[in-house]
Amino acid sequence: MTIKKFAKFNTGIALAVLILRWFLEIHKDRSHDFSMRFLFFIFSFLFVCSSSAFINIESLRQDIEKGFNGSSGVTVGGSSGNVDVFGLGVNSQNIYKSAQREYIVIGKYQYGEANGLKNNNTGNFHLRYAQGFAKGLFWEAFTQAEFNEFQDLKLRTLLGGGLRMRLLKDNKNSIFLGLGTFYEDEEIDSGIDQANFRGNIYLSFRSLLAQQFETVLVAYYQPNYNVINDYRLQLTAGFESKITETLQLVNNFSYSSDTRPPAGIEEEDFTYSVVFNLSY
After folding, report:
1. Is 110 exposed, middle or buried (0-12, 13-18, 19+ CB in 10 A)?
2. Strand duo 231-242 + 117-134: pairing
3. What sign results for the dihedral spanned by CA atoms 135, 205, 56, 8?
4. What is the pTM for the complete model shown?
5. What is the DSSP letter of 224?
């Protein structure tokens, strides 16, 4: 079995094990309210996946102490006339927390056209499990799959883990540091497929600026162990305003850099979005 096949096999095993453990954990809670939330999650999750690196999960995982929580959003925009533009985006973020465990499932898809030509087609799926073992210390394992047509990324799958440390947490602010590693396999449309081991370092800061407004800042650094000048960097800022108890307006800004992208692909990207999220 090649390293590539072995990595894909292990990714599938990790998905199955994490989903099974998550189901067994939430099955302990039989309340009607939880059942309705869980059914809503299944619907929204299937909607995202049927449409269908870096994934920001920090705001989601710091909002609740215990129980199930999630949010889903749909973004639709366009114009016609001198310039015909259409854009569609769907996302679903879901978490279940027990006393020392954390289960996270995230899916996202974006599609866009300009003057009848496709200019955006990207999606990702992320599954993560974390468990505390000492005060402020957690170990975590994760797997991820993603694609981006306009970065020539046919498919990227990865499997990894690491240590998560709580540096600060009070009623309004929190800071976490993550140190880990992962193995990734990339299928490139216009180049040579790649498989690498990378480090995974992140620092997240979350602040509740007011009762209805919060911000999250996250920095990721992912170096290739074998090539010192091959690394990925991402800086993300998110601003969330609560419109009602279940409806939020989220503004996201992200800068990413890949020092060794596929041939013909820019090293840097800047993205921004405005999304209405429905929490449950």
Report:
1. buried
2. unpaired
3. negative
4. 0.74
5. B
